Amino acid sequence: MKDGSGAGSLDHWTTWPLLFRLRHYATAVWAENIKEWKLELTYPLDFARSLIDPVVYLLPYVFYGIALVGGRFSPNLQKLVGTTDIVSFITIGYVFIGFMNMALWATGFSLRKEQMYGTLEAVFAAPVPRWVFTMGMSMHSILHQFLMIVVQLLFILAVFSLKVNPLGLLPALAMIGLMLIALYGIGMIMASTTLLFKQGWLISEALGGILMVVTPIAYPLAVLPVFMQKVALAVPTTYGILASRHFLMGEQMGFSVGTAFLRVAVLCVIWVVVGLVVFALIDKSTRRSGTLSHY
Amino acid sequence: MSLAATASVIRAEMVKTIRIYFSYPIIVVFWAIFPVLWVLPFLFQGKALVGSYSSDAFRQLTGSGNYMAFILIGAMVSNFVFSGLWGVGNSLREETYWGTMEYIIASPTHPLIVLIGKTLAEAAVTTGIVILQAAIITLLPFGISFTVAKVLPVMLLVVLLMVGFYGFAIAFAGFTLLIKEVHGWVHTLEWVFFLFSPIRYPVQVNPITSFVSVLIPLTWALVAIRAIIMLNQHAVGLWKITGILLAMDAVLLVGGYFTFVALERKTRRDGTVGMH
């Protein structure tokens, strides 16, 4: 073994030139993505269900908002963030938080899934580092999530006529792209916990529950208690959602667009570095203790 | 099989299920705390949209403006439904994973008896978790109090809800024998319940959800339980709702039994019991 990232025994690739190596990784990421799509499309009924689910999931939050306000527009929300339309506000929040699943379940459980398929050892023997493999799973999850977002938005557009600024779409997607990089780092930490604890669903559920509370999905940051506001500023989903709503419907974030981009860029570096380091350490430890194939 | 032998199998299955459950005490702690945490976003959403902890629009729909109490009661009562879906509906699938499904099928006990044992164990654990949640919620300033006069009729309604729902879950367990991987379908059902029954919002806000909700026993149970706990309406409509729930229980239990037996027979005949 030549590096700590957990490469397989066929490690001659570590001596390749950087560009050639990156191409090699990109091929592996793409192959992993395609494999996941093939597996998913083997069950077409299940695939169709996965596209309808997000709409069913979103509606109770929208109806709850309407029941609270007695209509579509909230004067109190106007006072807090400068926008009144609760349907657009809630929809954008819940549509983009869907990407959190990528970190908590797709990336986090990629290795566990392979273990269930009985292919983990084969994957670990492949001549690519493990982060490449989890990135392939993430790529599939991101593409799937985009597909779900399209279905959600089409439904909401047809039923409620979403009011957003189309010019804000590109900057919103740029922010979401940055958020995804940082979420990938969190996903790597989750993946390492599944190596360690095997049944890591409890940690994913717990972390997911906490992120769902501190991220201002259907409310502005200002309504959270102060300690939660501080926690919220350390998670990338906060910036992803606040900035998306800012670009698409003019929500006042409480900080400038530049600050939002800068902060989420810093979070990207921190979460990805921490994620890769934690993963490499735990990967090494499970190999040394010989518990890799344990259930 | 004699009645005593059947009771002994049910008891053994209950003990086994509860032992497995308590082998992971952290899971019990998780289920006691996190369903309460999951409702916090609704509290913050309410605060942002309304500006206070009471909503006039909500009062017009439900009789009470205390939306937080509404959500918390929904979260607690729906625990029984979701534990039925996951714990009972998915239980035979778990046996397949553990590699013990063939033993159950080959034993001289009908799988339905085993399923009854699992159901009772699940009901006992869920009741314990809900009591723990109720204790936590009573300590928090959400305006919910549980007195004996309230708890007794609520318990009657919960029992009526569970009887019917476990009938449905038993039918669902039969489907797991047939279609095997049901994890995603359980999630879908979960969200269908969130949409079409008043767990998290008053379904009257939309005519379609309002119409569909009357077919779900959870709707009737929640309406009555909230009336008792939040509006102190002890006798109002309780007997009518009890009658409706009893009728639904009869349909779901009989339907659940026949569905399970038919699907189990089909799986045996096709020889697909041990397949994944």
Write a concise synopsis of the structure shown.
The complex is a heterodimer of chains A (295) and B (276). With 295 residues, chain A is mostly helical.
Write structural notes for this entry.
The complex is a heterodimer of chains A (295) and B (276). By secondary structure, chain A is mainly α. Chain A has one domain. Helices cover 74% and strands 0% of the residues of chain A. In chain A, helix 4 runs antiparallel to helix 8 and helix 5 packs across helix 8. The longest helix of chain A is centred in the C-terminal third of the chain and has 33 residues. Chain A is globular, with a radius of gyration of 20 Å. Chain A starts with 17 loop residues before the first helix and ends in a 6-residue tail after the last helix. The relative contact order of chain A is 0.14. The N terminus of chain A is likely disordered. Chain B has 276 residues and is mainly α. Chain B has one domain. In chain B, helix 1 packs across helix 8. The two termini of chain B are 30 Å apart. The model of chain B has no long low-confidence stretch (mean pLDDT 85). The chains are: A mainly alpha (295), B mainly alpha (276).
